[in-house]
Specification:
Layout: H1 2-41, H2 50-53, H3 60-63, H4 81-156, H5 159-166, H6 171-180, H7 183-192, H8 195-227
Length: 229
């Protein structure tokens, strides 16, 4: 009985050893295709760098950039008198040109300043002209209102009384009043005036109307000429 119990551990150990051998054989059988595939896809060994090292080196002179040539330095002692004279003339000419350029630049600055002042004066004159035009228009409107007021007064008066006062007015005022009056109202006043004064007023009124008609014709000529095909 004791002998059988001793054989059991030995049998277990032998079984485990046999199992280990079989597992090792299985692992080797599985690893063989993987090793073959790795050997097939492995990169080729690098070629020897000896041929490359044997290539002739490029000359160092070709790689280095060519140094720029230095401009020759003029030696006054080695120059002829004619060359020295030519250089002096060129130097004087250049100085003269520089002086003229400076003068032109200064003139340009002065001209710009003068143009600015002129523009400012023109702007002030335009503003002044606008103000004067407004004053003149306002004055004309006021004069027109006074003339119409006088016309209304003389038209409501009796011709004899109106003629007596009308004779005392200045000729420009008489003409302005008569131009704004209707002919049927102006005729009785002229008839009641002193004949010599009435004649002078009538002639001045006719001359003014003639001048206005000529001015109108002169202003219409350019428009007619532009309208012609």
């Amino acid at each position: 009985m004791e002998f059988r119990l001793r054989l059991v551990p030995v049998a277990i150990v032998a079984t485990l050893a046999l199992l280990g051998v079989k597992l090792a054989n299985v692992w080797l059988a599985m690893d063989a295709p993987v090793a073959a595939a790795r050997a097939q896809h492995a990169p080729e060994p690098a070629k020897s760098a000896a041929p490359a090292a044997q290539a002739p080196a490029a000359p160092s002179a070709a790689a280095a950039p060519a140094s720029p040539e230095k401009s020759p330095v003029l030696d006054p002692l080695a120059m002829s008198p004619s060359e020295v004279e030519l250089l002096q003339k060129l130097s004087e000419r250049r100085s003269e040109l520089d002086k003229r350029a400076a003068e032109l630049s200064q003139r340009e600055v002065l001209l710009q300043a003068a143009e600015k002042r002129i523009d400012e004066k023109i702007a002030r004159l335009e503003l002044l002209e606008k103000d004067i035009g407004g004053i003149v228009d306002k004055q004309n409107e006021e004069d027109e209102a006074r003339i119409r007021s006088l016309v209304k007064i003389y038209e409501t008066m009796k011709p004899h009384d109106a003629a007596r006062i009308f004779e005392q007015l200045d000729l420009p005022v008489q003409l302005a009043v008569l131009e704004h009056m209707k002919e049927r109202n102006a005729a009785p006043i002229l008839a009641a005036m002193d004949p010599s004064k009435a004649k002078a007023v009538t002639l001045a009124l006719a001359e003014r109307k003639d001048q206005r008609a000529k001015a109108q014709v002169a202003s219409d000529k350019p428009q007619r000429a532009a309208a012609r095909p």
